[in-house]
Write the structure tokens for this entry.
Amino acid sequence: MADVRCGFFVEKKKRFCKMIVARGKVFCGEHATMEEGGSRRIPCPLDPKHTVSENKLEKHLKKCNSREKEKPVYYVENINSGSADGETLHQVSLSERSRTELQSLLDKLKTAVTGLQCDVEDSVLSHPVVQEELNNPKNGDSAHKHLKQQSSLLGHLEALGLLGRGRCFVEFGAGRGKLSHWIHEALKTRDHLQTCDDLQLLLVERCSTRFKVDGKHQDTGVQFERLQVDIQHLDLSKVQLLRQRRLPLVGVGKHLCGAATDLALRCLLETPGLREEGEPPPKRLKTSEPELADAAALLESSPGPDSGPVLGLAVALCCHHRCEWRHYVGQQFFLQNGLGAADFSAFCRMSSWATCGIRPTNRDGPPQGGTNQRGDVEEHDPAEGTDAVSGFLLADEREQVGRLCKRLIDGGRLDFLKTKGFNSKLTHYVNSQVTLENVLLTAVPSN
């Protein structure tokens, strides 16, 4: 007998509800009030986005997905938040600042970026494992753009010697887990999967995500694990998967939004106990394969306890306007350049000028609107529109200032990585037609 769909017509969507109904019923549980004599439904006290039968409320509260759950062992409140006594200040929008104040900020910016890597080199790479999917005509423009980014990320991981077995890949801000999927596919084609002991993939995402791809790999012999936790509260040293074999880590991320990048850097490089003091060094991997031998040698030569068991990282940066001073890893870098929290806040807001976009017909004069024309499809909140400081600078000048703000913020991250014993750099890993947020941060331990 075929499943019977709900008989309630959803006016907003101009179609019938697609939920399956119980035998003998016309409506699903959500629309059961339409049945004659049906129990009255009320909003759930834990989450008013869904309803529940009033006479079944007590039973529902015990199993509702919105109920407060016991915190996992790896959840440590604000472990990666940074300094708790960070400077607190009133946020001042750019539109509230005078032209004199804006000009003063520009002067500070130009002084601070002197000597920084402001001209980011182009290095668009690819990986053959993604090529077949890139050539698939069934993929639309959106999917094609994401595949180009994933392919280049894999290419950079391989060029840095980070794409191999004998390690755990930690994908921060994993979303559906597509980047981990392609990492797995790249390594599967290179080495047949006989055991899961030498490859782990850990996906970190604070939100519940639909259509996850990591679930498709649970029977492949490789260890996939997903943690639903904010990076801010994640103690990697207490994750059971990582404690099993203590494989070296590689941090990856595709468009880590704003402060999430700083939280991920702290999570990787400042987690207490990631390698306990006095613990014997990891055993050298016994293998004749040069790739695994190189990984083992790199691990043994990694610089001291600060870097821990981290082989390197590759993170595509995004949304600098959503960075926060209290989480920012480059606070010392800013302070050494005579800048503070108030300057940082202003530069974060100005950084959105690099990607907020101006309509072509308005590029030579004051903008008429703040249309967001971000080149990718990630849903990110724009900062202040370009009309917030209408007439202060021409469109091209504002975009240039926005890019300088991004480079200054990233300069603090490069400085932080240097203090942790890493060589790091910024690269345009795809062209701006694919996404305007096209800068990749990579780092490997200094030799």
The longest strand covers residues 249-257. Residues 395-419 form the longest helix (25 residues). The chain is about 30% helix and 15% strand. The two ends are 67 Å apart (CA to CA).
